Amino acid sequence: MAEMTIADKQYLAKILFTREQLEQKVVAKRVGISEKTMSKWVNEFNWKMLRNRLLVGKEEILTNMYEQLEELNNAIKEREKGQRFANSKEADIQVKYTASIRNLETDLAIADLVESGIRFIKHLQQVGTYQQVLEISSLWNGFIQASIKK
Fold first, then answer.
1. What is the dihedral of CA 43, 47, 50, 54, to 10 degrees?
2. Residue 11 lies in a domain
3. Which DSSP symbol is given to 84?
4. C-alpha dihedral (126, 132, 133, 139), degrees to nearest 10
5. Are residues 18 and 51 in contact, defined by beta-carbon separation less than 8 angstroms?
């Protein structure tokens, strides 16, 4: 069985710290690195911000944006007949909300892909070899990176 490279350890540490919400000491021990190295990676790559960002899900943000856009549209509908249109400021807000919602929905599709990949790789860890896990993880990461760039 091949030993994990530094890049493999760093990737695993990132997943355990950000997605699995494990403490730095626990991650360092599981990955086989020093606590000092773990602390350096957390600070250097801003993993705490990423970890916190994952706590406030995009679904919640998306729901809030839809509600705000709906409230604006309802306020416009409540105006007198003949005045039920957005002024330039409201129209600008509608365009910006719509674009933001579209971007978030696209990001959610990527997040769903990532989540599926993580679940498959976890399954593969149970039934496959270490080498298979590394190979599939690498291929999956390339697929995700290519999907994000589109």
1. -140
2. yes
3. -
4. -140
5. yes
Q: Is the pTM of this model over 0.70?
A: no
Look at residue 61 and tell me if it is in a domain. no
Question: What range does the domain containing 32 cover?
Answer: 1-55
Report yes or no on 13 lying in a domain: yes
- In the chain, the number of structural domains is 1
Tokens found for residue 6: 């530094």
Q: What does the pLDDT read at residue 124? A: 86
Contact 144, 109 (CB under 8 A): no
Report the 10 Å Cβ neighbour count for 86. Answer: 15
The token duo for 123 is 């399954």
Q: What percent of the chain has pLDDT over 70?
A: 89
CA–CA distance, 17 with 6 (Å, rounded to integer): 16
- Which tokens go with 50? 């990423």
DSSP for residue 26: H
